[in-house]
Give the backbone structure.
Amino acid sequence: MMNRRRFLTISAAACATPALAETHRWHGRAFGAEISIIIKGPGAIAAEALAQARSVVTEVEALFSLYDPGSALSRLNATGRLRDPDPQFLALVQQADRAYQLTGGLFDPTVQPLWRAHATGDDLQVARGLVGWDRVQFGSDAVRLGAGQALSFNGIAQGFATDLVTSRFAALGLTDVLVNIGEHRALGGPWRLAIVDPDHGGLGTRSLHDGAIATSSPGTMRLGSAMHILHPQSQPEWSTVSVEANTATMADYLSTGLCLAPHDQVMSVMAHPQVRRITLVDLQGDLHSLV
């Protein structure tokens, strides 16, 4: 469920980096998908940075994986309660709450029972009735779900991991980095990225400098007759949504939630001071860029 998009590809890197800088590349796998990191800088610092990145990714997966029955999220979904949540778990829950508010409820992590019902053929009406972030209670002592609820942090956890890794790199003094853990975040740059819609092909490029970009396309996966970005009252309005923002966490959840948003609502979100640009591809393949 974490491979809902792979439509940003690196087409040119670090145009402003001195020619003598060392380039270090690492490819791995996390959240069920390929990830990559490019670092321009001294070898010793890059080696330490990559070691820290691998550690962060492992820690985040241990918290938020739906596939690991021992993860914090799996334990919460199984019991409806997680006592004394890890600070990073609580931080992501708080980010998810902001995402719910900013998207007017279109980004809702309690959609997991609906996703599961579409995938397995269970009763959709029952599953729709379980969706509702307003029933989730959270604080430093515990996270509690409403009866029958389950969470998925697909659409935010990858961005969250991207930001954590990027922060580690910045603390090490790195200034020219591109982190791709499902979403892209850059230190320095510019890094040129291509935007590709799964149905309509290549749509242009974006230049990323000290910021983040995330892209979602509902049609990349289907659950029966439904597209995999789900909401009990809304259907996808766009073929692809790409969001550029200050953080990968925000870009991630907005690119997910705004797939379900009408144009006026997208325009309202565009006014947020941390949002830099929103690129929309409508269902007919026409591109709309909001800055």
